[in-house]
Amino acid sequence: MKARMTRRRFLTTGGTGAVATAVIPGENRSLRAARKVELTTGVGPDFEDYATIEAYADGVPVYSLGNIVFLYGVSPEVLPDVVMQYGNTSPRIKIKPRKSWDIKENPFGATMPEPGPRTKWNDCEPALAIHLIDGDPNTIWCSYGSQIPDARPEWIRIDLPEETSVTAVVLVCSQDFAGTERWAAGKLKDRQEFHKWAGKALPNELTIQVSRDTWHWETVYESKNFSGNESGPAEIVAEPTPQDSNQPRFLGSLPGGTIIEFAILITGRNFKRRMDKYVGYAFSLGGLEVWDSKRKNIALISRGAGVTASSTSHLMDHDRITQEILYEPLQYDLGLKYVRVGADTGVYTWNYVERPLSTMKVDPIADQTVSNFHANGINVIMNLDVKAHFLYQGRKVDWKRARVYELNNIYYDFPGWCWDTPEMFEGYLRYVEFMVRHFKDRVAYFEIGNEWAGPSYVYSRTVFTIKKIHPQARIMVGVGRMSQFKGVLEQLIKEASPDDLRLLMPDAVGSHPTTQVDAGLTLDDLKNFYWEENRQAMRDCNALGYKGIYIASEVYSWVMYPPGPRALNPREPRFSSYYGDSEIVRAKYLAQNLVGHAGLNMLAFVCNTYFTASSVGQSLLGVTVPSQTLTGAQPGSAYYTFRTLCTVLEGWKARDFPVNFSGAGPFTVFTFQRGMGEMMVAAAIPGDTTDGIVETASDVTVPEVRAKEAWVIDVLNGTEQKLTFNSDGEGTTFKGMLIKDYPTLIRMTTYAQQAWTCSSRSAAFPGNGR
Questions:
Q1: How does the average pLDDT of the chain come out, rounded?
Q2: Which of 202, 472, 652, 758 has the fewest CB atoms within 10 Å, measured from its CB?
Q3: What is the rounded CA–CA span in Å between residue 544 and residue 539?
């Protein structure tokens, strides 16, 4: 009888490095009964509370999150021809990823895509298609966008309530959407400059089609060189249609050959304007009018018209429904142990919490999200962002109107800083007090601001406010590069009294690196080499009395198709600001980065594990597929690599012990220990990487260590393989290892604990990351 895999057995059987055992048909009834008993006895969470199984591939379930993201239960074979050790015939076993609630400890997290889950009245979608038929030229629709101008056509369909005589279609370009006139006068700060073309971005190519049955369509206008009118309305007179299967088609007695139609389809291609660096090139209008024989607009919702569009831009505000589907479950699936929320924008920021003035309230769904993370084993870092509040400036007082007529993301409407006026700063401190009281039992660290450099009193007074309410609160600060933290500490020590310094000394510091931490550097650049720079920064800061943790709190990477990597089309005009890497190259860089930070006993947070609101290549979900509502995105290689690392690095700590290589190095090397009897070596070829298999053969020797058993982990394919080795009094040697341009992890159990394993990686380790 052929064995069959059930979802529950896949989730609960087997350990790391083993695929779950199969279940013989006939066990289903007892399995369901056992599940019922487990639920009544208080078992942990089940991923199927968040995801459904919609397919099986090679007996492995494929999980669906709202049918917009599909997650393979193990890592796919992205490099199927990989060999990890010459002559090794042991099977390569798929590693079963563990969820956040199953992992006790690892160094990985995410800076979350904001705004997160929220109630409907806290959702701001200023570019919806309904604005095309609301009769207001100062509301807009914008298509999803792309990093190149001709990625795909974008269309608008207007449905009329009855057959109507149509003489013209008018594209209305907005002139004052969300304060464009104020922006043009320098009175509104838009970091993305979206205001420049919002509501007036036209295509180079335009086609208009009409139909009486939405089945047979006829073209009444077509231009390959459409100019339009970006300063106002662009009237397009429709040509008469022939008398074919849709006859009678037009009333010849009316001027211009009036068409009798039910539906109008407007399609644009090859777009002229780049909206901003993330939305890219798009089609954007303030309105769309369809004129009847009396030159009256009938494309109005107030006249019974309807509208559908090919896609909608959410700018940088992920739509509420997608966030409810993805925000928590993806982090649990990855196996993260930290999330960082509230940086820059979103419903945890002051602008959302205090509304109206003097009334503090956390969005109930956002509130519950923090509780869920906390309950499911994830540590929450809450950023108390230091941006100014619009209400203290007399702006956006009517929130229901502001949701429609304003851009409510600080990247598009930057409000300034909380210290701009004394009244503003006192209001900010009241917000801080409220947030700490509300979240103190669920938040691991409170971070003061994100990427800011303001007066030192802002930090000190904020910390004093926090500690007054919650004396045990842990405080986090941020810098661009970790080497800058020394200067922050020196200023703090200089300005604070000894008693104040004990309160003000932070407990965590975050920096914002890219994944390509050592690309292209040679050994001559050692002092600028990222790992050496961080190690020196940690030594310097520890010497100043800092005892907290170090975090790479926003690790950046970039993949974007189109345009794809620049190397694919180097002669093409450079349309995009971001070309990024291929999926495989990004996965390799990410593996190098994450393992390296773990090798320094640092935490590492990927910035935006997903991003569906616009074309942001930081997302680990690969290429987004735009639509009018939900935007589908499927996991890339980096997603699965990250997930594997979260599982295989559970419980490991950086430790200093020697490792020798016979091959032509140098290699980047990090060493780890777990408990009293496990050791691990991570080695990779440093520098730039590329697609495919890049490797160097080398024997690997760990002196004075006798291994019992050993395995090699391929983090890109998510496999573990038992190693052959020689072990004696001199040490343990693994012959014929193939070191890749991404970390090769050699894990071993040992017979005896070595004295030198007590050395922590947070101390100086000159052999690490070489």
A1: 87
A2: 472
A3: 9
Tokens encoding 55: 């397919």
Do 667 and 684 meet the contact criterion of CB atoms below 8 Å apart? yes
Nearest CA-CA partner of 262 in 406, 192, 163 = 163
Give the integer Cα–Cα distance in Å for 86 and 387: 57
Per-residue b or e along 625-664, where b marks 16 or more CB atoms closer than 10 Å to that residue's CB: ebeeebbbbebbbbbbbbbbbbbbbbebbbbbbebebebe
**What one-letter code names the amino acid at 766?**
P
pLDDT computed for residue 764 by the predictor? 28
What is the distance between the alpha carbons of residues 625 and 585, in angstroms, rounded to a whole number? 22
- Helical (H) or strand (E) element with 478: strand 475-478
Taking 90 as the threshold, does the pLDDT of residue 57 lie above it? yes
669 vs 202: CA distance, rounded Å: 53
State the Cα–Cα distance between residues 26 and 8, nearest whole angstrom. 14
pLDDT over 70 for what percent of the chain?
86
Q: Tell me the average pLDDT across 314-322.
A: 91
3-state secondary structure of 125: coil
Nearest Cα residue to 115 out of 312, 323, 311:
323
Structure-block tokens of residue 646: 């979260």
- Cα–Cα distances in Å, from 659 out to 121, 258, 392, 502, 524? 58, 83, 60, 40, 22
Q: Which two tokens stand for residue 688?
A: 């730039």
Query: Rg of the chain over CA atoms, in angstroms?
Result: 29
Edge-to-edge order in the sheet of strand 695-703: 660-661, 695-703, 731-740, 726-728
Partner residues linked to 624 by β-bridges: 633
Q: Any idea which residue has 């993370």 for tokens?
A: 373
CA distance 643 to 98: 8
Residue whose C-alpha is closest to residue 155's, from 517, 512, 491, 627: 627
- Express each pLDDT in 392-428 by its tens digit: 999 999 999 999 999 999 999 999 999 999 999 999 9
- Which amino acid would we find at residue 587? A
448-501 pLDDT, tens digit per residue, is: 999 888 899 999 999 999 999 999 999 999 999 999 999 999 999 999 999 999
Burial 346-375 (b: 16+ CB within 10 A, else e): bbbbbbbbbbeeeeeebbebbbebbebbbe
Distance CA 410, CA 413 (A): 5
- The H-assigned helical ranges of 580-693 are 583-599, 637-648
In angstroms, the CA 338 to CA 233 distance is: 50
Query: How many whole angstroms separate alpha carbon 702 and alpha carbon 42?
Result: 45
Question: Which of residues 402 and 763 earns the better pLDDT score?
Answer: 402
Identity of the residue numbered 670: F
Region of residue 245 (left: phi > 0; alpha: psi -120 to 50; beta: else): alpha
75-120 residue pLDDT tens: 999 999 999 999 999 999 999 999 999 999 999 999 999 999 999 9
Provide the 10 A C-beta neighbour count for residue 606. Answer: 27
Question: Would you state the structure tokens that stand for residue 139, as one six-digit string?
Answer: 């509301």
389-395 long-range Cβ contacts below 8 angstroms, 24+ apart:
389/350, 389/351, 389/354, 389/415, 389/418, 389/424, 389/427, 389/428, 390/351, 390/415, 391/351, 391/354, 391/355, 391/356, 391/357, 392/357, 392/421, 392/423, 392/424, 392/427
Of residues 261, 281, 320, 68, the one with CA closest to residue 154: 281
Burial of 214 (0-12, 13-18, 19+ CB in 10 A): exposed
